[in-house]
Specification:
Blueprint: E1 8-12, H1 17-28, E2 32-37, H2 40-50, E3 54-58, H3 64-78, E4 83-86, H4 101-128, E5 132-137, H5 150-170, E6 175-182, H6 195-203, H7 213-224, E7 235-238
Helix pairs in contact: 1-7, 3-4, 4-5
């Protein structure tokens, strides 16, 4: 399929893992893709492996000037932007007693502020294209309270709420905004948990397995495509039933 031919897609935090799977899926379907990350070597390697229609931009999602520079470069290279996937995120489990202001600030700046700035600076580029799609990657812990996730989880609940506000504000410009809530997905992020914790989470999943980055990418591509043209403000769990 070439659902995204002549479209340009920006995916943050996409040098590896789930974000890289999203980049590959969009590129496979004909899009110009922009790999956004602070991991320069991994980002350049991914863009180079895709060849044409791919570029890497070193990008700090917590910096307003970095967002401005990113969209300026995308405009110069590809002529505009049609889809933004706010995928960048960090995770460190900690109980309330273990959480200090430094950890809270770190989670906030990447997971929450980064999404806000992405939506803020994507609006004008998407408006110039006559509309588009923003997909914000939240988490199942943005749908259900979970122990030892007060810093991470609070940012993911915020992403869920900000998505709904943006869907309302941007609808007049034909810009759709949805949030995706992955469960236990086999990526490096899970390595922050103990093996016992990950095993327990997998066992608590009705489908009895972890998801794959490619499965998340398939959902993200659907939400970015015209096939989901009447979906906005939605929160979609992709978790094997964990939140049931």
């Amino acid at each position: 399929m070439n659902r995204f031919e002549n479209k340009t897609v920006v995916v943050t935090g996409s040098a590896r893992g789930q974000g890289a799977a999203e980049i590959r899926r969009f590129h496979q379907e004909g899009a110009n893709v922009v790999v956004s990350d602070l991991r320069v070597d991994d980002g350049n390697a991914l863009a180079a492996s895709l060849g044409e229609r791919a570029m890497f931009i070193r990008h700090d999602v917590s910096s307003e000037s970095s967002w401005k520079e990113l969209f300026d470069q995308v405009e110069q290279t590809f002529g505009g932007c049609d889809v933004l996937v706010n995928n960048a995120g960090i995770y460190r489990p900690a109980t309330i007693a273990e959480t200090d202001s430094e950890l809270m600030e770190q989670m906030f700046r990447v997971n929450q502020l980064g999404v806000l700035l992405g939506m803020k600076y994507a609006v004008e580029p998407l408006k110039r294209r006559g509309g588009g799609s923003i997909i914000n990657i939240s988490s199942v812990v943005g749908l259900r309270g979970s122990v030892a996730t007060v810093a991470y989880g609070s940012t993911k609940w915020a992403v869920r709420g900000m998505t709904k506000v943006a869907a309302n504000e941007f609808a007049e410009h034909q810009i759709r905004v949805n949030s995706v809530h992955p469960g236990y997905v086999s990526t490096d992020m899970l390595k922050a948990n103990s093996e016992e914790s990950n095993d327990a989470g997998t066992l608590a999943t009705p489908l009895k397995r972890q998801g794959t980055p490619e499965e998340i990418a398939a959902l993200v591509a659907f939400l970015a495509s015209d096939e989901s043209a009447f979906i906005t403000g939605a929160e979609i769990a992709i978790d094997g039933g964990w939140t049931l």
